Amino acid sequence: MSAIGEFIDYVTTAGNWTGPKGLLRLTVNQLLVSGIAVVVAAAIAVPAGLGFGHVRRGGLAAVSVANIGRALPSFAVLVLAFGVFSQAGRGLSIWPTAIALTLLAIPPMFTNTYTGVRGVDPRIRDAAAGVGMRRSQQLWKVEAPIALPLVMTGIRVSATQVVATATLGAWVGFQCLGTLIFEGFAQQNDGKIITGAVLVSVLTISIEVALSKLERRLSPWATTPSGGPVDEPPDPTLASPFHPGRPA
Amino acid sequence: MDAAIVLNDVTKQFPGSADVAVGHLSLSIATGTITVLVGPSGCGKTTVLRMVNRLVEPTSGQILVEGTDIRSQPVHELRRRLGYVIQQTGLFPHRTVADNIATVPGLLGWDKARTAARVTELAELVGLAPDLLDRYPAALSGGQQQRVGVARALAADPPVLLMDEPYSAVDPIVRHRLQDELLDLQQRLGKTIVLVTHDVDEALRLADRIAVVNVGGRLEQYDTPTNVLRQPASAFVEQFLGAERGLRRMGLLHVADVTPSGGAIVSPTDTPATARSAMAAANMTWVGVVDDGRLLGWVDGGDLNGQATVAEAELRPFTTVVQPATVLREALDVVVTSPMLAAAVIDPDGRYLGMITIDQISDGLR
Amino acid sequence: MHKGALPGGEAMTKTMKSTTLLIVALLAALGLIASACSSDDTADAGTTQGPQIILGAQDFGESAILAEIYSQALADAGYDTRIQTLGGFRDISMGAFASGEINFAPEYVASLLEFLNDNAGTASGNLSTTLAELQTELEPLGLEALEPAPGVDTNAFVVTAETSERLGITKLSDLANLDSPIKLGGPADCETNPFCIPGLRSVYDVDLSGSFVGLDSGVVATALGNGEIDMAVLFSTDGRIASENWVLLEDDQNLLAADNIVPVVTAELIDAYGEAMAKVVNAVSQKLTTPVLIELNRQFDVDKQSARDIAAAWLADNPIG
Ligand SMILES: Nc1ncnc2c1ncn2[C@@H]1O[C@H](COP(=O)(O)OP(=O)(O)OP(=O)(O)O)[C@@H](O)[C@H]1O
Ligand SMILES: [Mg+2]
Predict the structure, then answer these.
(1) Rounded to an integer, what is the distance from CA C259 to the centroid of its chain?
(2) What are the chain B neighbours of A231 within 8 Å (beta carbons)?
(3) B90, A121: Cβ pair inside 8 Å?
(4) Is A219 on the interface with B (CB under 8 A)?
(5) Ligand 1 pocket, Cβ-based, cut-off 6 angstroms
(6) CA distances (Å), A195 to each of A27, A127, A178, C137, C143, in order?
(7) How many CB atoms lie within 10 A of CB B18?
């Protein structure tokens, strides 16, 4: 049977969708663990990025530290996390996967947030201080909103990476879409493998698209057409280089 | 005149730099005037301005705004009383024009209605079309952005406006228009304005008082534009003002600033003999005809031949006329291009005030 | 991490179809597969004339150690040898034979048979009949199995000493007496592997499918050690069974197959070198008992020594001929 045939066969079998290892449950779990990881990572990385970006100090060191998470292979982190949680008797739970994914999600969010705040035009920061904003107002009313497109980019990059990588959770006993791939390989079930791969891809692409839309929705100003503005036409009455109406 | 801003022996040395950016500067800026700080690049103009709103902290010395030391109040409160306009505007790109203008009212917690009314009022004041209010700054021209910057600075009606090279990013024609608008605005609102530029013409155009600053924030001269032009206090100032100081000064003075001569005039009832002796006395070949304070025209010797009175001669219309408000530089142009090398000064009611020639103009510049 | 799909498992029975290749490519993109296709040159100056002996090593410790041992022993005997590192799937190693990339591979009797006959289920605990069937399957492929080693690497059902004592289980038939099924963890193929859950059901009448959790082979032992699972499917030669003092449940009703180590070579190699080479190889195989394998694996998994060093040290202690 062709790959597409096996795939169609698998997804059109009603029994494959329900039950504790059904596609619905596996999809929910994949999204759940990804959601936890993205939210926890955002709760850590975004405030940290805003803070370092605002004080404009120590950011490079922090970026390097955050990037250690990127340098470590996700699977190695997952196995380590499993070992740690396992010692507390919680290895066979959502947490090793959630933590490994959190570590994976932090670097893009932190780096983008930091870069976004750090990159705010100094004249705009000056203006924010100059109009009489307190430090916190400068951050929240000016720097953070201007950094928002980059913050959202970081979240989007992290989220897509996380959803795709959540697949690995299957290898440490977390039931998710990866389970289809994990078992499919061991059991030579091509229908399972391709169903898992297709569903993971569909989720990843959907999240990418949804977050891109949200990104544009949240920062309408960032998409203003740049070509347009033309300076006002010259005033023909201004012939003399000296001011005509200056009172004596 | 009381002082809005006073700098007392203010010095700024940036950490890690050998030279002072501003050294022992004392300056008193009168309320309701436009003071322009002018000087070469890097001389410390921006630093002076930023010390006033505490974006830069002085190394030593004291600064008073409206009589109180700027360190005696929370910095954000100080800044809300000092409107700040910078080069290329520093507008918030993520806020609409209306929201940019409403920044300080927002910080002060004004209610919606009051803020909206103020935004409308300011947009009109600075000449922004209402349909621009919902745009983001990126969709405005440079001149429009500059107006928004001024409106934002004025929003909470601060007594003082600090402007750092506000017009350096717009083309000369727009710059002129904005400068006119600023003068107009200041006339109407009576703000104390401190403006930084390195454009001498801009300084001369706008300033009530010019502070010419040399490298290291040294004050070379602090005086009215005409005085600075008439009597540069140092070689530095003279060189900085550049060539054509006389012409530049004439650009600032008006016909009213010079004393016209009475001129060779006669009344219509005078005889040709009287007219001829007036010409001879003034060493001229023509004479003006004035009746009841009005200039009727002029005649020369030939016109008077065979006439009983001046009135019988055919009067020629007087075309080279200036008003007291005419800029002296334009008046000079009229004089030197007139066949008689003179212009009549007529007030707006048509009353004859006298004649000016090169002599009166050069006396006025002395 | 695909070790679980090899010795005791069915491994991949079908040759890799394009769909499967597509999935492998997808997974590779997801970072699931650490590509391990570098070649490892052992440049020993050979004195015997003939084709170079290229040994295929799978990406798990035991395979690497065995390849090194055979390679070094042959090199010592004057043959020109080289080790080719392969991925973790049996499709790949068999494909490598077909394409001529390798001509020698340490294999497992029963698992290889089941792979070649499409899981016909003819492999059994009887070594000689299973081996005979294997030779029949190999012949049309131009391959031949040399003498199998006494050492067996098969699925092992392992519990901790504490669990063994508490539940009173030392052999697989004891499992039937338990009130509730114990929690089993192992490679994902266990659910369908005739030597795992289905075999336990048919031979021992215990159904563990409801309490099974599939795990990467790298974390099965961790989960067992931390008490997250009660019983683990490991390899009988896993070094941690010895080092952790775990209890390997006795296969008292002969569920498990004769997965003895067996060197598989090409007929071409036999033709070229004949008995002389077989003698060297067989001498090595004879010494590879299960306890030896457990110890060698322990040095790899627990002591983290390299396969090359482990092999060299073992050959020094156990000179051939
Ligand atoms: N934050 C700073 N740190 C160190 N040095 C500074 C800083 N800001 C300004 N300076 C130095 O202080 C001196 C005065 O700078 P300032 O910006 O006040 O000059 P300016 O007169 O405004 O020049 P321009 O016309 O080019 O804007 C310069 O030498 C400048 O390099
Ligand atoms: Mg400056």
Answers:
(1) 8
(2) 141-143, 170-171, 174
(3) yes
(4) yes
(5) B 14, 17, 21, 41-47, 198
(6) 11, 54, 10, 33, 36
(7) 6
Give the model confidence (pLDDT) of A175-233 as tens digits. Answer: 999 999 998 888 878 888 999 999 999 999 999 999 999 999 998 888 644 333 333 33
Q: How far is the CA of B45 from the centre of ligand 2 (A)?
A: 6
SS3 state of residue C314: helix
- Please indicate whether, in this complex, the C-beta atoms of C188 and A185 are within 8 angstroms of each other: yes
B226: three-class secondary structure by DSSP: helix
Strand partners for B58? none
CATH classification number, C53-150+258-317, choose in 3.40.190.10, 3.40.50.2020, 3.40.50.10090, 3.40.50.2300: 3.40.190.10
- List all residues 6 or more positions away from A197 whose beta carbon is below 8 Å from its beta carbon: A181, C23, C26, C27
- The pair of three-digit structure tokens given for residue A126, joined into one six-digit string: 């000056």
Return the ligand 1 atom nearest residue B43 CA: 21
Q: What is the pLDDT of residues A34-43, one digit of tens each?
A: 999 999 999 9
Interface contact A179-C12, CB threshold 8 A: no
- Residue B257 has its nearest CB partner, among A231, A244, A248, at A248
Contact A53, A116 (CB under 8 A): yes
Q: Is the pLDDT of residue A240 over 60?
A: no
pLDDT tens digits, residue range C306-319? Answer: 999 999 999 999 98
CATH T-level fold of A40-172+204-239:
MetI-like fold (1.10.3720)
Which CATH homologous superfamily contains domain C155-248? Osmoprotection protein (prox); domain 2 (3.40.190.120)
Per-residue pLDDT of chain B (366 residues; tens, 9 = 90+): 588 999 999 999 999 888 899 999 999 999 999 999 999 999 999 999 999 999 999 999 999 999 999 999 999 999 989 999 987 778 999 999 999 999 999 999 999 999 999 999 999 988 899 999 999 999 998 889 989 999 999 998 899 999 999 888 788 888 888 899 899 989 999 999 999 998 888 999 999 999 999 999 899 999 999 899 888 999 999 898 887 777 888 888 888 888 888 778 888 888 888 888 888 888 888 888 888 888 888 888 888 888 888 888 888 888 888 999 898 888 999 888 888 888 889 988 888 888 898 888 888 887
- Residues of chain C neighbouring A202 (CB-CB closer than 8 A): none
pLDDT tens sequence across C173-195: 999 988 888 999 998 888 888 88
User: By alpha-carbon position, which residue is closest to atom 26 of ligand 1?
Assistant: B41
Residue among B142, B173, B257 whose CB faces A238 most closely: B173
B25 C-alpha to ligand 1 centroid (Å)? 15
So what's the pLDDT on residue C48? 67
Closest listed ligand to the CA of B48: 1
Radius of gyration over every alpha carbon of chain C, rounded to an integer in angstroms: 19
Chain C touching partners, 3 or more CB pairs below 8 A: A
Residues B41, B12 contacting (CB under 8 angstroms): no
Q: Are strands B209-214 and B218-223 parallel, antiparallel or unpaired?
A: antiparallel
Has this prediction a pTM greater than 0.95?
Answer: no
> Model ipTM?
0.78
Q: Where are the domains of chain A?
A: 40-172+204-239
**All CATH 3.40.190.120 domain ranges in chain C, comma separated:** 155-248
- H/E run at residue B287: strand B286-291
Chains that touch B (3 or more CB pairs under 8 A): A
Which residues does chain A have within 8 Å of residue C115's beta carbon, measured at their own beta carbons? Answer: none
